[in-house]
Amino acid sequence: MNCGDAGHILLSQRVADDLVQYTRWRSQLHELGEVEVKHGVRVSVFNLYTDEVGNPEVPQKLRQAAGKKPIEKARVPVRSQRLLATICLSCTALVMSLRFVPAVPVLSHVWGNEQALEDWLRRTGRRTLTHSEFVFVAISTKSLAGPESAKAGKDRMLELMAQHPFPWSREVWARLLNRLFESGARLVIFDLIFNPPNEGDQVFRAALDRYRDRVVIGANFDLENGNELVSPNADLIPPPAQYDDRVGFVNYWPDEQDGKLRAARFFTSHRQLAGQKPSPTDRLCASLVARAMEKLGRSNEVPHDLQDHLIRFSATDAYQPYPIWEIADPDMWHSKYSDGEFFEDKIVVVGGSAPKLLDVFDNPISPEIKAPL
Amino acid sequence: MNLNVLAATMDHEFLRKLPVALDLVIVSVFGVLAWLLLGYVGRWWICLLSFLGLSVTYLLLAFLLYNFLGIFVPIFPPLLTLLACGFLGFVAQQFHKRSHSMLHG
Asked: Which residue of B has its CA nearest to A254?
């Protein structure tokens, strides 16, 4: 090149592009702009100088040229920077805009896969600690089958369970409450809805009244039947049962996208269930868990709103079922439960574990989680 | 579900998702990071390592945020933004460099 003065080390764009990759040389490169060389060809020229070598002055030929660019330290060339900025901006804008168009084929997976990743975190990440004070008393398949005839005469509970198939006389539940509370249980939660009147209701009602501060039973909004409330019958809980502090709804509302349960709602109102905007004057129905927390004196720790709250699940095997027939059987009661010592200060949930009861929720953790768990 | 919910309520183990606006801010931050790395990190292998390092660090951060604070941050969209910007930017940079050197020697 014939455009430099004495001492100048002038470089073409290509050489400068290579040198700019090295920190050592980057600061020594100074873009001079374009200059016309032989045959009218224009090339970008860079001046390389340090304190010891080179010439920091702008070459005379370039100074004379019109439209000289200001001298600046070279990084990635400006045009390349603009290209990068355009690419990055376009990619970012595309990803951001896909957040609002979930129905686009293939591309919807960009945000749609987030649910799968969150579920992966739920499975591999930390779980809620297992509470040793929780006991799950299960209506298991063996319990449903009824006790062996030889054992049935040993205890009134076993006798009632043997008398006819499930649902048993409600005296069974009254006797279960007596047995558990006499052993020092703190709270008994029935994940059962005692709706149709049944034999033994009067005895069970007496037990529910006797232990009213330590027992909670279920009600259910039939979501497939116009949210009709299925509550304990009037012989057990005087209507309106849903507002009795011993009754809580057992419903959970699954994710609209994939039908999996990830969240709990602690309160709802008839207006909310009807799809209308809730009003502050609505009388709220509490969930089974909200009622249980109330009985435990911890209602201030329950979110008092009508929202669904995502929960951190416990370990899949956190709560093993204890079949109800074992509690009814005097031998098991003595050998396995130390005559009830096992239940001292426990929070007991009574519910179904038998597949026949079909009380299993789809969830992101395990297909095995049953309603009471 | 009931025992799971009761345990989570007693231990205040509720999970939260970030607001949509914050999700978008995170995506845009990753777009800017990609641009900065491409524009200001000279050597391509340092650039590549930076992209990988940033991705792994973010995954780790997402895991820690879930574990300790119960917060879900978006994972796939920000990483896709970073890596797509990185890849396309790198290709464009090389293409631009070659075409420029062919024109100007």
From this structure: B1
A316 touching B, CB under 8 A? no
For residue B92, list chain A residues with Cβ-Cβ distance below 8 A: 83-84, 87
pTM, full prediction: 0.78
Residues 3-42 on B with a CB inside 8 Å of A are 3-17, 20, 23-24, 27-28, 30-32, 34-35, 38-40, 42
**Residues A201, A234: Cα–Cα separation, whole Å:** 10
CB nearest A22 (choices: B4, B14, B42) = B42
Beta strands in A127-272 (DSSP E): 134-139, 187-190, 215-222, 228-230, 247-249, 263-265, 267-268
Render pLDDT for A125-175 as a digit per residue (tens, 0 to 9): 999 999 999 999 999 888 888 777 667 677 889 889 988 888 899 999 999
Q: What is the 3-state secondary structure (H, E, C) of B26-77?
A: HHHHHHHHHHHHHHHCCCHHHHHHHHHHHHHHHHHHHHHHHHHHCEECCCHH
Q: Which residue in B5, B78, B100 sits closest to A77, CA to CA?
A: B100
* Reported ipTM: 0.88
> Is the CB of B20 less than 8 angstroms away from the CB of A289?
no
CB A180 within 8 A of CB A348: yes
**Residues in chain A, total:** 373
Token pair for A118: 């969150």
Token pair for A129:
């600690």
Query: In angstroms, rounded to a whole number, what is the distance separating the alpha carbons of residues A256 and A269?
Result: 20
For A5-62, write each residue's pLDDT tens digit.
888 888 888 888 788 777 777 778 888 877 777 777 777 888 888 878 888 888 887 7
**For residue A197, which of A240, A159, A236 has the smallest C-alpha distance?**
A236
Alpha-carbon distance A189 to nearest alpha carbon in chain B (angstroms): 9
User: How many whole angstroms separate alpha carbon A310 and alpha carbon B23?
Assistant: 18
Any B CB within 8 A of A253 CB: no
